[in-house]
Amino acid sequence: MNIAIVGTGYVGLVSGACFAEMGIDVVCVDIDSDKINRLRNGEIPIYEPGLEEMVRRNVEAGRLHFTTSLPEVLSNVEVVFSAVGTPPDEDGSADLQYVLDVAREFGRNIDRYTLLVTKSTVPVGTAAKVREAIKAELQKRGVDVDFDVASNPEFLKEGAAIKDFMSPDRVVVGTESEQARKVMERLYRPFMVVSDRMIFTDIPSAEMIKYAANSMLATRISFMNDIANLCELVGADVNMVRKGIGSDTRIGKKFLYPGCGYGGSCFPKDVKALIKSASQAGYDMRVLRAVEEVNAAQKEVLFKKLLRHFNGDIKGRRVALWGLAFKPETDDMREAPSLILINRLKEAGATVRVFDPVAMEECRRRLGDTVEYASDMYDAVVDADALLLVTEWKQFRMPSLPVLKRTMRCPLIIDGRNIYDPEYLREAGFTYDKIG
Asked: Would you please indicate which residues are annotated as catalytic (active-site) residues?
């Protein structure tokens, strides 16, 4: 089976590599010629565990190809996936220009039945716009070529994307025809050997499922952060509260960990887009607006805690940050809490020294020389007045406390992810603060 995937960002590249791993012939298409050349040379533009090896293996096997031209491959493929970006507009709505550009190019060049599948996260109703864009191009050509559109939202967690794709807990497909359904069943059959986890829906429902899923997870995070903040005020321990409510099978344990706010490419964008879509339909998503407000406030928590420890004045203080990416196992800093924190620290006159296992280059790209870059986690804390744990990378979980004690000017640790044992740190002579 031959397919094309338009867009070599996070979703497109992971999807292409995983489909190729299952024996499917895949052409990844991107208008960025420099990125395509780099991919052909084995250079991976994003960090995702296992992805570089998988891409190289399938390129060498002749199953994974890269090009800048969709028209030159359309006659050889049965399915085209649209995995281009849908960045938020200023009003929070999803920008569909790239999705519709793909649809128009598809309509200008197909010459036989082909299925166009939207994998990008898009608002309900996008498939209808895609269909109309294709029809308009066919009418301009004066031809009548059969085609279908479908929706196949991705559910990939950064840092575990390959596992999520190769062993999905569900594959959601929205279709309007039996022919499209059969094509998608055949495409995903290799991933369903153990059990059939395909969910077929109408297209609007498939489009809504992705937004609803991410918004629910974001809601759980903001809910627990709200509970954590209340715990601090009333003297409760949020970790005990989390365990107590997570043991309720109706609630479960996942996404109940308090922290310094969520970020990344999905939750902030998708929550905003769903709020905007609802507004356009005449409905106010009051719960999700509160989710956003709580998350924005939570990104200020570590800074406010630091101020309290220094009586509101940190001018001239040296502050070490462990973690820059919005979560472990990625270099993604989009909407990362670290960016808000660094900005607040600089505004207050502090010197900021940072370390992250993989996101240092991304930080340099974003912030330049406005922060100091450490060579390792211990270099970051030399002469530091405080250490702020922002991202819970595994290598940060068991630091050498004697080394920290010797190298820090003040033994203050503020834990933004609640990964340390408070009693153990305090017995070692540290001042320790956490969330909730």
From this structure: 266
